[in-house]
Design goal:
Blueprint: H1 7-21, E1 32-36, H2 39-42, H3 55-60, H4 82-91, E2 96-100, H5 103-106, H6 116-131, E3 135-141, H7 147-150, H8 159-175, E4 181-186, H9 188-196, H10 208-231, E5 238-243, E6 247-249, H11 254-277, H12 282-288, H13 299-303, E7 309-313, E8 318-320, H14 345-358, E9 362-367, H15 384-402, E10 407-413, E11 432-435, E12 440-443, H16 445-472
Parallel strand pairs: 1-2, 1-10, 2-3, 3-4, 4-5, 5-7, 6-8, 7-9, 9-10
Antiparallel strand pairs: 11-12
Helix pairs in contact: 1-15, 4-6, 8-10, 9-10, 14-15, 15-16
The structure holds beta-D-fucopyranose.
């Protein structure tokens, strides 16, 4: 991965990747291309300008929980490098930029007083995007709950639902005239299961019952926040982002097939059924037994409040085995630096299945990307594996479109290398390399490839535009 290939090989590889997608370039005319980040992973300035601590600030202080012992205090220093980073984003020709607002930056305690300096930062970010012709896609909760709310029980406490609705309404009042899209939560499964069942993510709790109560409150706060923001007059498309994968049974044994059904229930149906059907899957309520969440009358209807779009984060498939003896490596495919199997056709499979089972609204791939151990060589990063990963997954999205799935856009995770949660800075997902000693940004070959791909997409769009005008007569 680190060796620099001879330049003729590099250009051969780039051309063959380009060939892989160019014949498939008939993405729908309004299809949006972007890059994604999240506040805690890039902003730094953890205590600057009145920002309060979040559960991730607190979690990073616990010994042994972050692989390299790091934290988000500086990260990519995006808070102080905003103008340069805006120019960087614009240099790739993206239509959209997906980012999150840090709740404890704009409302340090998660309730009550707003922090004008924090709000002003997001004004500059949003206005800077608009000035550059890029649509701002805002995510309200990418995991960094204000620590003050955690001290009051966090997402396990039903009161946090109402605190979140207030926060969402405040953000809609402030930014609703300018953001092009509003996402409530990023990956509630991760907050619930990794944060509260396995405890490997903040806030580090280990209880299935807590995790399920948290997932209930997240989905409820999502539905109530949509209602609350609409009541404030916000009219931009609103939705949620889920991390979803196809789950394949390791073997055809009944035990493995049963495990696959349960894993699918826990990852996919536990979220999709309430959001799109207004109920929890009955088999999962049975399987969870006494750990199932406490609910109140009206919750299910509120959770199913109609959404304008669904965002899906896709990285890999998942393999279910009853005795957990079946490692991902046995899939026989190559793995990324996270140990995640590279399985692009799983994305097409997932999209077709979801559309079949739930009749999808406008759907985005709101994150897709890969970590590789890439390092600059003479000021360049030859991350051909990442180009291959992105090209094959974009092709998988195209295949789903051909088969009728209403896809609205695709976002690369991530704009730049960043704080990868419990993996610290050791895993690099960026299409831009960050040197954390100097904060130097170096676009990797994948960034240049994406830029060229988007240039060709735009040229095709323009070519098609007069045709479709003619066709309309
Ligand atoms: C997703 C997260 C994102 C990033 C990628 C690799 O689960 O939403 O913040 O960590 O994984």
């Amino acid at each position: 991965m680190n060796a620099s290939p001879p330049s003729h090989l590099l250009s051969d590889a780039l051309t063959s990747c380009a060939r892989l997608i160019d014949p498939l370039s008939d993405f729908p005319p309004g299809f949006q291309w972007g890059v994604a980040t999240s506040a805690f992973q890039i902003e730094g300035a953890a205590q600057q300008d009145g920002k309060g601590p979040s559960i991730w600030d607190a979690f990073c202080e616990k010994p042994g929980v972050i692989a390299d012992g790091s934290n988000g205090n500086v990260a990519c220093n995006h808070y102080l490098r905003l103008e340069d980073d805006l120019n960087l984003i614009a240099s790739f020709g993206v239509d959209i930029y997906r980012f999150s607002t840090a709740w404890s930056r704009v409302q340090p305690k998660g309730h009550g007083a707003w922090n004008e300096k924090g709000l002003a930062f997001y004004d500059r970010l949003i206005d800077g995007l608009l000035q550059r012709g890029i649509k701002p896609y805002l995510t309200l909760n990418h995991w960094d709950l204000p620590q003050a709310l955690q001290e009051n029980g966090g997402w396990e406490n039903r009161d946090t639902v109402h605190r979140f609705v207030d926060y969402a309404q405040g953000m809609a009042r402030r930014f609703g005239d300018r953001v092009a899209s509003m996402t409530t939560h990023n990956e509630p499964w991760v907050i619930s299961i990794l944060g509260h069942e396995t405890g490997v993510f903040a806030p580090g709790i280990k209880s299935l019952a807590s995790a399920l109560q948290v997932s209930h409150h997240l989905l409820l706060s999502h539905g109530l926040a949509l209602q609350g923001m609409r009541a404030e007059g916000a009219r931009m498309p609103m939705g949620i982002v889920l991390n979803l994968s196809p789950i394949h049974a390791a073997t055809n044994s009944q035990a493995d097939l049963d495990k696959a059904r349960l894993d699918d229930g826990k990852l996919v149906r536990w979220y999709m059924d309430p959001l799109f059907k207004g109920n929890y899957p009955v088999d999962m309520l049975e399987a969870f037994g006494a750990a199932a969440p406490q609910t109140q009358a009206g919750d299910m209807a509120n959770m199913a409040t109609s959404m304008d779009f669904l965002g899906i984060n896709y990285y890999t498939r998942s393999i279910a085995s009853a005795d957990d003896s079946w490692g991902v490596a046995q899939g026989g495919r190559r793995l990324t630096d996270m140990g995640w199997e590279i399985y692009p056709e799983g994305l097409t499979e997932l999209l077709l299945r979801l559309h079949h089972d739930y009749s999808l609204p406008a759907t985005y791939i709101s994150e897709n990307g890969a970590a590789f151990d890439d390092q600059p060589v003479d000021g360049q990063v030859h991350d051909l594996d990442r180009i291959d990963y992105l090209a094959s997954h974009i092709t998988a999205v195209h295949e789903a479109i051909q088969q009728g799935v209403p896809m609205a856009g695709y976002m690369v995770w991530s704009l730049m290398d960043n704080f990868e949660w419990a993996s610290g800075y050791e895993k690099r997902f960026g299409i831009v390399h960050i040197d954390y000693d100097t904060q130097k940004r170096t676009p990797k070959d994948s960034a240049l490839w994406y830029r060229d791909f988007l240039t060709r997409q735009k040229a095709l769009r323009q070519k098609k535009a007069p045709l479709s005008a003619e066709a309309r007569g």
